[in-house]
Design brief:
Helices cover 44% and strands 20% of the residues. It is of the alpha/beta class. A 7-stranded mixed beta sheet has the order 3-2-1-4-5-7-6, with helices on both faces. Helix 1 packs antiparallel against helix 10. The longest helix is centred in the C-terminal third of the chain and has 19 residues. This is tRNA (Adenine(22)-N(1))-methyltransferase.
Amino acid sequence: MGGSCYCSSLLRFELGTVPADRNSKLGICVNAMFGLDVRLQAVFDQVRCPTHVDVGSDHARLLAALLKSGRIERGIAIENKQQPFVNSRRRLANLAADVRFGDGLAVLEAGEAESLSICGMGAESIVQILEAFPDRVPPRVFLQPNRQPELVRQWGLRGGFHLVDERIACGHWPYSILTFQCAADRDDPAYDGIDRDAALLFGPLNLRRRSAVLERVLREELEYLQRFDRMEPAGIRRRETIEAVLATWSETPATQTR
């Protein structure tokens, strides 16, 4: 899908409208200092707690940045493959971090961390990790699925985690950055008054604030889907959902602030 240049030009609006704090460095400075790509930068901007765990950290860039910036006091990296485990140990050497070898949350104790991130995996793998040990999932969760973010949103609805923030970071393609908070009430207010099918596919908060990046992405995807005379039922439903969203937006003046 095209439009990455357009997405890049709007990225500051998607990531800069809700900064973690007023004193944080500009995203471009963070990127230069710590080598974070736009996906990890979007997570970095939101994390601030005593202990943060990152599952599938690979080179552990996110944890290293969080520790060096003082956003967290302690980090836990979890890897289930030898080379990423070695990579993470090397990068986190001499930092207040623990690198563990194991499958997902199997090597994390309940209550050991205040927040969790899983970035750069497929949605099915992310959900599998979260549902394997639900009692060990920290109260704050940052997730970046490579595809099918609707599966992650469905997990939040099932598991009692409310969607409190979502952003679109444009790199090789648009990435969804989803932030969840454990809640006593299973009814997530983020979905109130929003078409459920559209909300699961594209994000209730994105739709509510009429994300400029999302609108561009949807228009480009619709243009692509309209080239096909025949599609599977799932493709037809997706196209119709996109058409409905864009039709609603064309009828309603934008209230988004940049």
